[in-house]
Design a protein that fits this description.
This protein is mostly beta strands. The protein is built from no helices and 19 strands. About 0% of the residues lie in helices and about 60% in strands.
Length: about 200
């Protein structure tokens, strides 16, 4: 027997060979044209179905339902196939939040993605070694001085976490040359606090 799953991209579907009952995993999108849901189609009984919902621009994933009941609140819904299923991927008006670090070596950022408008979003910045967080900017304007920045989604945003190097003051070593007799002398150190 042969089974197929619909996937996005240039390929229309993939084919899987196997024995046993054939199950149909169907899914629709609400509202229409709000996004896509991949990997629907025919599956052997007991196979794993990795459905993936992706919002179109201007939308965000809300949940996946079956007969009106929520079965998943994450875009990737993986389950074991035991029978026919008809699912609905629900989307709502949403915003795309992107984050980046400046400079790139200064640290890492987290919390970006697609969010339903009106929901709370928290982005976080974590400084790398020898760097410290300064602030979040958007279009070169400071929007927060907190590393964890929370706001309400209401439009696409491109946020940049600014970092600055932490000044280091290593000890300065003055190495004294050996005497004419070849005896090595102790070196002198100036510590970061200025003491010898």
């Amino acid at each position: 027997d042969f089974y197929f799953q619909f996937i996005s991209g240039d390929a229309a579907f993939s084919i899987i060979a196997g024995d046993g009952p054939t199950r149909t995993i169907a899914a629709t999108v609400a509202p229409v044209d709000a996004g896509t849901i991949d990997n629907t189609g025919l599956y052997p009984d007991g196979a794993t179905a990795p459905l993936l919902a992706t919002p179109n621009p201007g939308y965000a994933f809300v949940n996946c339902t079956e007969n009106g009941s929520v079965v998943s609140t994450t875009p990737k819904y993986t389950f074991t196939v035991t029978g026919d299923r008809t699912l609905v991927a629900n989307f709502a008006a949403g915003s795309a939040i992107t984050t980046s670090a400046a400079p790139l070596t200064g640290g890492n950022t987290d919390g970006g993605g697609s969010f339903v408008d009106g929901s709370n979003v928290t982005v976080e910045a974590v400084a790398s070694a020898n760097y410290q967080f300064v602030h979040w900017t958007e279009n070169s304007v400071v929007v927060s001085t907190q590393a964890a920045y929370t706001f309400t989604a209401g439009g696409d945003r491109d946020l940049v976490a600014e970092f600055t190097p932490i000044a280091t003051n290593p000890a300065i070593v003055f190495s004294q040359p050996p005497t004419t007799a070849g005896t090595l002398l102790l070196s002198s150190y100036i510590l970061p606090d200025g003491n010898f």
